Amino acid sequence: MSAPGLPARPYTTLLAKGEDRKVRILQVAERLLARNGWRNTSLAQIAKEAGVSPAGLLHHFESKEQLLNAVLDARDDDDDMHADRDGDLVTQICRVAERFDRAPELVGTFTVLLIENIAPDAPLHDRLLKRQQAAIEIVADLIGRAQAAGVYRKDFDPTIKAVEILAFVNGMETAWLLDPSIPLADVFKGYGAALTRDFEPTDRSTT
Question: Which end of the chain is more exposed for a tag (fewer CB within 10 A), N or C?
Answer without folding.
Answer: C
